[in-house]
Amino acid sequence: MFAYYLDLALRSLKRNKALTTLMVLAIALGIGTSMTTLTVLHVLSGDPIPQKSAQLFRVRMDVFPDDRFETGEEAPENLSRHDTDALLRDGRADRQAVMSAGSMVVTPAQGELLAVEARYTTADFFPMFDVPLRYGSAWSRADDAAHAHVAVISDSLNQQLFGGKNSVGQTLRVGNQGLRIVGVLGDWDMNPRFYDLSNSQFGDSEQVFVPMDTALDLKLATSGSMNCWGNVQDNHAADAPCLWLQYWVELDSPTKAAVYRQYLQNYIAIQHQSGRFKHSGNVALQDVMQWLDHNGVVPSDVRLQMWLALSFLGICLLNTVGLLLAKFLRRSGELGVRRALGASRSAIFLQCLVEAAVVGLAGGVLGLALASLGLVLVRAQPTDYAAYIHMDLRMLLSTFALSLLVSVLAGVLPAWRATQVAPAIALKLN
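and the corresponding structure tokens:
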């Protein structure tokens, strides 16, 4: 029966090509604009590490002196070295990593000096964020404690310096210092770069990873926000009153997260009792998605564009309803004959819906082409996330599902009106 309705729908659509073209265009324009903005929102709001995003937490504590503390203010995003050292020593989480962004100039064996992005962190960084290694391994906690001169480099830097060969054991020259390469990253594309949003929310991974204490010993350049108070001689000193370090912990259960939050509150209480400050202080423990939402990784204009596109889709839907209504009513004579020959109202209703669905599928194909064109235009925009906007299989299937849903919804009212045609009147008018 469905094949019969499909054949009737195709014959009907071919009879009035102009009207059919208008309906397909209306749906395609609505679908194309909507799927473009929905794809952008889908990419930007996606979970960058879904397998453990609920287990990774950004630690924030308000350790400002009393003259800088403001009641009701959120805890600052970064911690001081004094506090990260204390949290690391306690080691209350399953894993914990302190980190900072940086930069360095690498001296290759041949060719010009290379300015590269770097990350200074601790050993747990790699297993915490599921960082894959192509060659070798990450450094160990013992290397952290020994301030070992080791490094992990990216696959792209390994290609540049060593032609892609296994470079584990080779020396990475940074100024007049040498770092022994212990690992080479595999394919790792963490976007947005949630672990440190202060420099760039989207982009390629850093090219060199160095133990935090080693980087401080070598006085490698850091980057990112630095919030200091008082008389500061060395911003990076162990007791410097400066907030500049990011701190992440891994806690594999809600119970452990609650216990760790209480540990942080106890830590603040101890600082209060020691006379470090008199205010009550506050702490925050945010998982990955809470952290991304807190930082507004999805730009507000993207959300606005999405609502505008969905509104446009609604207008296209109304136009399609009008066109289908006109089309079905013009066929009242044909439908009346079918009713007179014994076709039920439900059969007429289903026949009309199949015709609307065919229009929707055609609109979906054209809408997919328009959405692809829209994404090309988005990728041409000068934004740091533009290069990462691509339509995946999920959004591809969603395009056809949305097109089919929209067309069927648009066909419900016209199909219902078509079923109300009285066979006797229709035959009389013909």
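(Above: one complete record from the training split.) The first helix runs from residue 2 to 15.
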